[in-house]
Structures are given as C-alpha cells and as structure tokens.
Amino acid sequence: MTRKLLFATVLMLSITMVSCTTKPSDTNNSNSSTATVDQNKDNNTSSKAETNTPKEEVKVNKIKLSIYTIDVNSLEPNESNTIEVNETLSLEDKLKALSKELSEKKFDKLPIEVKSIDTVKGKKVATISLTDSSTQKWVPKFQGSTGGTVTANTLIENFLQSNNKSRGEWIDGVKFLYNNNPIEYEHVADLSTTQYRN
C-alpha cells in the first residue's frame, strides 16, 4: 500500500510540475521556436559541411611521352608504353623522367643522364650521356649490326618523340655521349652525330 501511495504522489507531482511550467499558448511557440532552432542547426551544419569539405584539387595537366621499342626485323619504332609527366615541369625535368623510364624499361637500369639543353642554330638540342663506370656495360649494347642499330634507334626515337603529337614543348635534336665523350663505335654511328626530328 505504501508503494502505491508513493507512486501516486510521484505521478501527481510530475503532472503538476509539467502543467505549471508550460502554458497553453506557450505550447505552439515552443514548438515553432524548437523548429527554428532545429532549422538553424541544420543550416549551421550544412555551412560547416561546406567549409569542411576539401576544396577540389587543382587539376594538373599531364602530357604523355611515348616509350618506343624498335622492331628487330623492320627497325621501325613501335610505341610499347607511355608515361605521364606534369606539363609544367621544365623541359629538362621531362627529359630526366623519360631517361629514367627508358633506363629502367629498355636498358637494364644503365644510367642515362641529361647533361644539358643547348640552342644550336635556333633549335633546342639535348645532350645525353650514357654512363657507366669502369664496367663498360653499355659497350655490348653498341655491338653487332642489328643490336647496335636497335640501341641507336631506341635512344634516338625515344628522346626525339617524333611520332608523339601530344608531347607539348620538346627538343628538336639530341646528341649522345658515352661517359661524357663522343661515341665512336661502328654499329651505333648514328649516336656519334646530332640527330634532329623530321
């Protein structure tokens, strides 16, 4: 019985407190103000969401450079791969990216260094040095009529990018050195002179 009495007292007090704190006219206002507050919260949340979302990344224009393989039978270049480089890179940096890829994919990671880009008779000519220390690992690539021709054409075609129309600003010619000296091997005679794009 005491429990029932205690329960009834708590219930009555609760009803009294609720009815005393809200007036009938306040009921509508409290609902509308609650709705307004909720709307404001939603608006604040959406504006915060807009400011918190990462800005669109700046699109970097890329250009494709071709990696050519020389057909052993026809000695003609065939595009075997492409690399993408940032269009805003300097011409020297684009050549360095190409030489790195060419070294890794076509020449067993033998060093290919971009030494300079000079203007010769109004044309941009890159000087490329094929380097190895005393190991002479490049020498076998210069040997044999077919092997030497494939090596020479691979280097020339890849650096001149003659068949690549999307290369952007590019060199007009290329000159090759072996350990910073002129190349004097019979089967790679084309590497001993400056080669120009057609």
What features would you describe in this structure?
The protein has 198 residues and is α+β, with helices and mostly antiparallel strands. It has four helices and seven strands; from the N terminus they run ααββαββαβββ. The strands form two sheets. Strands 3, 4, 5, 6 and 7 form a five-stranded mixed beta sheet that branches. The protein has a two-stranded antiparallel ribbon with strand order 1-2. It is rod-shaped and about 120 Å long. About 3% of the residues have low confidence.
Low-confidence stretches: 32-37
Largest sheet, in brief, is:
5 strands, mixed
Order of helices and strands: HHEEHEEHEEE
Mean pLDDT: 84
Classification by helices and strands: alpha+beta
Helix content: 40-55%
Query: What is the 3D shape?
Result: rod-shaped
Q: What is Rg?
A: 37 Å
For the secondary structure, the number of strands is 7
Distance between the termini: 110 Å
Determine the number of helices (DSSP H or I, runs of at least 4 residues): 4
Q: Beta-strand level of the residues, as a percent range?
A: 15-25%
Briefly say what this structure is.
The protein is of the alpha+beta class and 198 residues long.
